[in-house]
Amino acid sequence: MDSKGKNHCSPDVLSNLPDNVIDDILMRVPFRDAVCTSILSKKWRYKWCGLPQLMLDSDFWKPKKDIEYLTGDKTVWRATKDLTGNFTACIHNLMTRHKGSITNFTLCIQYWKICPRIDNLLCFLSEKGIQHLVLRLPRSFELPSSFFTCLQLRHLSLQNCLLLPPPTFKGFDRLISLELHDVKVSSKLLECLISHCLLLEQLVLKISDTLSDIIEINAPMLRYFDFKGDMTTICLKYVPLLAKLSLWYYRKDRKKFDVANFLTSDFLESCFALEHLHLDYTVNARGQEIPTKLPFDLMCVKHLCMCIYLDKEEILSALCLIRSFPFLRYLEIQMEYNIMNDMLALECLEVEAFPDVISKHLREVKLVEANGSMREMQLIKLLLAKTPALVRMLIKPHRYLEKSAIVKRLAELTKFEIASPKAEVLLKLV
What is the pTM of this model? Predict the structure, then answer.
């Protein structure tokens, strides 16, 4: 047999791939490309119709010329210059062709001017047993009542939605993770929604609007909480397992956060399992006395990350927290530049003002966006002198400063007293 005959008789590698290999390939490529595999062979033609995970993201809706999406009966979906106009047709084809369950579904159309009807889609997903749902929709889109029938949900992420559940809705009692980004919802409803998620382990709230009432967070299984918004509107009422907490104070009116009240309150008192804390805020505590410690110690905190402007109140707030975490091991401070901090030292930051050790177990300190200002140097000097277990201090200069200038200013570090015999100070210039 000649070489041409051998080629003709060679097996079809694509058609002979095991089903599990084909499924794995389809799961790893964008959904748009997965549908395109229908043209490869008869064996591949129906495969995309059984995918349990579908992602209709921004790339899916981008028009591509001369591309055909073939379904099992050779129906063609043609990409056009304005694919967004074919949303209804695309969803209809998906609903009529898909076989089997759909456990994960993502729809990203947040940049569209108008949101198409998705009532039938959500009904379809509910019937398919949807467990992981991501909806990025045009701003303030009111979710239809069919959304509240997806009671099998375990992971839910919403953006730019308006939540108005029917009176009969009792909550998603199977949820493990919940993410709400700029979702319009009343304080009472949000509090009720969280309290009914008894299995909730991860909670992310990004709320740009100031809520009218305080939200009490009651979540017995919650382990991770990331909040961006007005910190005065939340209360960590019962979070016995919370291990990671990220708080980013944000208000549209740019009103500063009253850190003095925060430090003297019981905001963190129920977080006795807390290990990682990230804080990002600007303070409004001028003329108020910053406490040296919280009213209680948090024994489990090992990792503290803060973003501060090196104002007097913010520095003292950071020191207050450090001393309230007796077993703190890692400290990261991101410096925000303030021209006044480059000229004025602070008497309250002198080493002599701190007769006792600040932290007995702190081993690593990372200072980000350092610029070598007077207050910054004071803080570095204080930490080196009052942390006897320190192993490493890593200083990363501000990205816009000349390296030669920052090296010259930080050269003074060699003159500072270092309490720990094992400590090394490193300058990361890259």
Answer: 0.84
